[in-house]
Specification:
Elements (H helix, E strand, L loop, with lengths): L2 H4 L7 E2 L4 H11 L3 E6 L2 E7 H6 L6 H4 L1 E2 L10 H10 L4 E6 L2 E7 H10 L17 E2 L4 H10 L4 E5 L5 E6 H7 L1 E10 L11 H5 L3 E10 L16 E2 L4 H11 L3 E5 L5 E6 H4 L10
Parallel strand pairs: 1-2, 7-8, 12-13
Antiparallel strand pairs: 2-3, 3-4, 5-6, 8-9, 10-11, 13-14
Helix pairs in contact: 6-10
Pfam families: CBS (PF00571)
InterPro entries: CBS_dom (IPR000644), CBS_dom_sf (IPR046342), Diverse_CBS-Domain (IPR051257)
GO biological process, one term: methionine biosynthetic process
Amino acid sequence: MLVRDYMTRNVVTADTPANRDEILKILKRTGISGVPVMKDGKLIGIITRKDLLRNPHESQIALLMSHDPITISPEATLREAADIIINKNIRRLPVVEDGKLIGLISVADLVGAVAQLKITDEIRQHFVSKTFALWNETPLTVVGRIMEIGHADAIPILDSENKLDGIITERDLIRCSCIEDDIEVSDFSNGTDDDEWTWESIRDMHVISYGISRIQLPDKPVKLAMIKKVIAVPVNAGVSECALKMKRGRVDQLPVVNGDKRLVSMLFDRDLIKVLLNNKPQ
């Protein structure tokens, strides 16, 4: 099981000089989570959804992207790729051959490989993660901040009866975000106690106005932006069965529910691919 046989070949890239607005349009249009950044045909960085959401005021790609990304050979095994992705806490590896970018191996590609392994082990044995949930009336601006603080890629959403109502992901935040332009004012005056109409006070006033541009989330409840048709699995679901559901549904996570359809935990794709470190094809 080699990287060459499972990688994505038609990679969406961004060429420098590019700006943040162009990257945001690419992520919205394609639904992907990150793009390699190229300069003169050479890979120089990776920019992701997280980079944009965690630095909403920054517009320079050079300051947003991760420089000199880790790469992998097309002849490497999927186990090697999974090991790097898990231990380096990344979601994608550029595949480079003879100094040229020829593909990308991502968590989603590895999930597709797990789906083919026919592993019947139940997910509750090793792979489910504890989680927290939010109320469906929580403002999106608050949701975005909670996801940033909690380093969460997705959060389940509950209704007023504590039943699973949806899922909100980074992809959804990017989809409904916009670029907001504004004017801010900074006052560098000396702050004297003189009357404000004296010549001394006027002389000491230094006010600077400057334009800012930032990524802004709309002020609306999360229920209006979340995914409502949620693919959920029981605690006794099989590993490869869940991987297949993720692949077909093009999702990064699956809520795990009990017999009453109540949320008990979450299964994330990054946890699921750990099986590649220990299992061999059957």
